[in-house]
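Structure (tokenized):
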């Protein structure tokens, strides 16, 4: 088994009110893409997909505030709105024209808000298992919801932190992947090292629990700021990818998405889980490449 590509180089970027860590592919294609990870993830969740698409877009993957190598945000604001403002500031920093926006899980919710609030910044929108409001009970989301209960979330995070990193990571992989055998041993080693590094950060547990609370709060939001209401206002052509074996976001939500987003194409991957961009990056790339080719200037296809 060949070794996977290494993580893309990263740098700290000062966005004014917030400093974030960003990883990017080599400057090349004129079209640009911004990638937003999910709860408990980081920019490295997009490494392989960024590589697959590096010939058509120059990619920038952000560590959301408090995640990866990004410091905690001012005021410890981990709401979806705050994350969206960070992504907007990053887009304005790296691009002078609309970009192709990618989001997974919580990052999908953030990306919907960005695309709805700032349509001038988004040329196309690709969502992988987006965490849009779904109040039907499932075991995975129920665990996330319980982690947001005041004091219980912090207590649970403290208890989990004493477990070996390998054990915690295996539990996460079992929840997020359809087939854990697809993970390259080198990727597994990298993930364990990163989890151990995160354990040493004083704000890591707070960032995780608070981001979970920010996401759950969106499930109960009413009015025009409700994420489904915002999805209906997204003007960018949209691709939504679900894995049939997703234990966190019900793939049946694709039907509602198909009725809600104005311009949308739905793809169901029969053997993938919650992080299809990591589990089957080649297949996600093929679908995203079609959307990019349809929406980017003609020079991309020449």
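Design, position by position:
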């Amino acid at each position: 088994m060949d070794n996977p590509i290494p993580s893309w180089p990263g740098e700290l970027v000062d966005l004014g009110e917030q400093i974030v860590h960003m990883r990017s592919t080599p400057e090349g294609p004129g079209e640009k893409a911004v990638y937003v990870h999910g709860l408990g993830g980081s920019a490295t969740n997009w490494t392989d997909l960024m590589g697959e698409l590096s010939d058509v877009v120059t990619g920038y993957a952000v560590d959301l505030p408090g995640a990866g190598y990004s410091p905690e945000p001012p005021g410890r604001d981990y709401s979806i709105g705050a994350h969206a403002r960070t992504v907007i500031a990053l887009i304005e920093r790296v691009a002078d024209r609309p970009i192709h926006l990618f989001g997974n899980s919580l990052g999908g919710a953030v990306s919907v808000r960005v695309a709805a609030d700032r349509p001038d910044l988004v040329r196309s929108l690709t969502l992988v298992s987006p965490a849009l409001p779904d109040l039907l009970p499932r075991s995975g989301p129920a665990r996330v919801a319980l982690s947001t209960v005041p004091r219980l979330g912090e207590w649970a995070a403290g208890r989990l932190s004493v477990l070996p990193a390998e054990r915690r990571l295996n539990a996460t992989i079992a929840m997020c992947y359809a087939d854990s055998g697809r993970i390259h041993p080198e990727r597994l080693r990298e993930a364990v090292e990163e989890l151990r590094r995160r354990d040493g950060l004083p704000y890591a547990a707070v960032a995780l629990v608070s981001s979970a609370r920010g996401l759950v709060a969106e499930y109960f939001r009413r009015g025009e700021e409700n994420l489904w209401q915002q999805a209906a206002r997204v003007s960018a052509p949209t691709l939504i990818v679900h894995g049939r074996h997703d234990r966190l976001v019900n793939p049946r939500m694709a039907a509602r998405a198909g009725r809600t987003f104005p311009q949308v194409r739905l793809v169901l991957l029969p053997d993938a889980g919650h992080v299809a961009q990591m589990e089957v990056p080649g297949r996600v790339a093929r679908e995203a490449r079609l959307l990019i080719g349809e929406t980017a200037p003609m020079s991309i296809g020449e």
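Reviewer-requested clarification: Confidence is low (pLDDT under 50) at residues 145-149, 151-156. The chain is about 40% helix and 15% strand.
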